[in-house]
Amino acid sequence: xxxxxxxxxxxxxxxxxxxxxxxxxxxxxxxxxxxxxxxxxxxxxxxxxxxxxxxxxxxxxxxxxxxxxxxxxxxxxxxxxxxxxxxxxxxxxxxxxxxxxxxxxxxxxxxxxxxxxxxxxxxxxxxxxxxxxxxxxxxxxxxxxxxxxxxxxxxxxxxxxxxxxxxxxxxxxxxxxxxxxxxxxxxxxxxxxxxxxxxxxxxxxxxxxxxxxxxxxxxxxxxxxxxxxxxxxxxxxxxxxxxxxxxxxxxxxxxxxxxxxxxxxxxxxxxxxxxxxxxxxxxxxxxxxxxxxxxxxxxxxxxxxxxxxxxxxxxxxxxxxxxxxxxxxxxxxxxxxxxxxxxxxxxxxxxxxxxxxxxxxxxxxxxxxxxxxxxxxxxxxxxxxxxxxxxxxxxxxxxxxxxxxxxxxxxx
Length: 412
Ligand code: MN
Fold this sequence. Notes:
Radius of gyration: 22 Å
Distance between the termini: 46 Å
Bound molecules: manganese (II) ion
Structural class: alpha+beta
Helix content: 25-40%
Largest sheet: 7 strands, antiparallel
Oligomer: single chain
Order of helices and strands: EEEHHEEEEEHHEEHHHEHHEHHEEEHEH
């Protein structure tokens, strides 16, 4: 087995800082896309990468133990970022994506949280190995929007899971059997936002050496406007030693710890067969709190939470929160909350003020993401008015109130 590796990160053309970071060792690779105010994003991404040095070069008995090591490293990264954020006021609310891979023998093991991605280019075809933990990915899976609508969705940057936000974290892990000539690409959304998959595939098929290919991908993102920090790690896998490959448990077929696809993985049998993927969806801690969890909004919320917390420290948190209202969801129904739609580590900054009997399913699908994020209300009366006016899927609205027109642009 021989690997050719190249990696680079670039600030892009719009951002003043680079909050992305990567680790590229001999066998272990990771990309982190940090978020948070001031220096917090840089701290989050750099902190999250520290556990991966310890994984580099390690040999694993089988795929489950490699996945377990990746899971442990990501949970260690999460604990470290949570701890730092709790200990330093300017770092409150920071977080990061984390997509990490180990190439060991002829297998690729991946662990993943957030919207950075791992891809495999095989036989000229680009396959996305990871599933984005984003609001728009969820809306696509639910059939509410198309890929094309997602690409321009005003809330496309909202992620539903991040490292460093909560002590509980759900991590996806998976293993792929590699073939000679496979290329593994790990990248941040600064590449995949402005550059589509087909263009990325063309660049990887271009025949450049790994360094040239990485530079070419960064150039493509910048040529498309460079709206975000861009990070690219590229690994080419060459199966040089037949005896070595035959000695690997995977080649001998003994690594067939074939676990079933978890329910939340996209059902795409072709995709799964093509990758020869087995095992995914390890989980630690509680269930993903899901759509009602507004924490996932990027920088805006992270910095707002930080500011709010500083204010709260002096004023008495609960009193202040009790005077704020927003409309969100609770157990499948529209609900009115005291507080703000966010949490700080394990501390939720809101509680239910009033439950309603309006099922979320009855609310127009385009309006539901706004509920998921929490709709700010001036007071309890205003919150009740928002509930009464919430547009329904059939266009009808209770109390004879005219439905609110569909927004043309919302979100950050
Ligand atoms: Mn980014």
